[in-house]
Design goal:
The chain is 55% helix and 5% strand. By secondary structure, the protein is mainly α. It folds into 2 domains: 9-86, Flavocytochrome B2, Chain A, domain 1 (Roll), CATH 3.10.120.10; 142-462, no CATH class. It has a 3-stranded antiparallel β-sheet. Strands 4-5 form a two-stranded antiparallel ribbon. Helix 10 (241-253) crosses helix 13 and helix 12 packs across helix 22. The radius of gyration is 24 Å and the shape is globular. The chain binds protoporphyrin IX containing FE (HEM). One of its GO terms (cellular component) is membrane. Its main location: membrane.
Length: 509
Amino acid sequence: MDRDRTLTAAAVDALIADGHIIVIFEDFVLQLDSWLGKHPGGRLAILHMVGKDATDEMKAYHTPATCKTMKAFRIGLKPPGIWTNRTPPIRRGSDQTPQENPPPATATEFPGGNAAAYTDWAENREVDKDTEGFPSLCPKVQEEIAQKYRALHQRVRDEGFYECPYLEYGKELARYTTLFAASMIALRYEWYMTSACFLGLFWHQVMFSAHDAAHGAITGNFKVDSLIALFVADFCCGLSIGWWKSSHNVHHLITNHPEHDPDIQNVPLFATSPSFFRGIRSSYYDFTFAWDAVADFMVPYQKYTYYPIMGIARFNLYLLSWLHVLSAKSASLGSSKAWWIRPVEMAFMSCYWYIFGYLLLWCTLPTWTIRVAFVLVSHIVTMPLHVQITLSHWGMSTSELSESESFAQRQLRTTMDVDCPRWLDFIHGGLQFQAVHHLFPRVPRHNLRKVQVLVKEFCASTGIPYTLLGFVDGNSKVLGRLGEVGEQVRHLVNCQKYMAHFSGVDGLH
Ligand code: HEM
């Protein structure tokens, strides 16, 4: 095969139509069929890029050394000029695919075809105001943004922001050790609830380092960072980093897409977009989130249930962790280059339950009341972590605008940063620079404040709005979104009752 031939767009389309996994990287057309099942970043990360120029995504998630090896998969050169991104097959037919499946535009397209119900819905439906003020989606404009992002990325590299300031991790380690030691000392003196509080604070803090390591943002070595992440998340916290990586990588690549980003798929408890009202098929979970009576009941109150549910969110993470580690999906990773992660996770998570569940809860705590209280207090104390995770995205745009939208613009449209004084950085654990982190996921956390300055310059020069809010305003934005969508559900439920009453048509379910 002549790997220096230029492949026309039609030839690439034909290959994709034949089921080949084709991605554009720099000037090359890559065929990743044989790599898909071996990819340490999982199958979905690649499937979401089929037919697209994924240069920026690929450079953001891989070391330069890994990027060099990618050219081994080239089957030709892309045609000169700007590549017109195709919709990846995994996203075709999705409710949010631009042009293919727009929301009802007339009363006849509305469920039940009821004019009054449609008018009510149309007047009250969420308009994604968060897309206002962004640069045009014209491919030329987006290509210019991509070029500026590449120059920015080069600057981030040249100025040494990929180098980890290990001293900062020394300070982190001292903090984690102090919190854990305080918990153990309190336990020794039978101050059980104090011990539970310190243990929760330890979990809250230490998980930030698991996040850094899982992104390869500590040593930059995939195996070493994965082992750090495994030790912290699985052994110290009982949570599967393999599960977290598999969902988090997809979340980063297709942020805030209702059908593909697992981080916003929380029906029937929460809905941050009206797209959920029709029920959605999640490509990550391979599961349909049907809109049902429980969603009708819960979502209108979501702005009130947000904090209480975040308070117990950690219990759900245990469940998702074990489901992942025991699932066939995880077992199939046995054929991938990251096969060793699963057995290590099983060992570490079992150790966690032996130490926390058996030695601490069962053998050390004297009564059932104290055991239950200890579990609740230690887990609820981690609530700010769950708020912080959701804060960066839940108030932001959930629209799918156009395949031509650049990586940088998409990340800045769907992600916001939290403004805080430098001395409070440790409380947010780097997640306050979420938009900066989404642009440069492998940059060590302690450098993000400096990179933020460059990102602000980039936004000023491209005209992309940069959302930076104080913690309280950020919370208000999320609550505002939850309230808006909840209100729409209330309207829809009323419409449904109206239609059922007058015409016997069931409009929503
Ligand atoms: C469609 C394009 C691709 C996307 C979106 C993508 C995404 C990712 C992501 C998100 C990770 C992080 C995994 C983790 O730490 O859990 C990763 C890791 C990795 N990917 Fe890819 N990937 C793509 C294509 C490729 C290709 C073509 C290669 C071939 C060399 C490759 C090789 C690797 C390797 C070796 C790692 C481990 C981390 C490293 O060494 O940099 N990926 N990828």
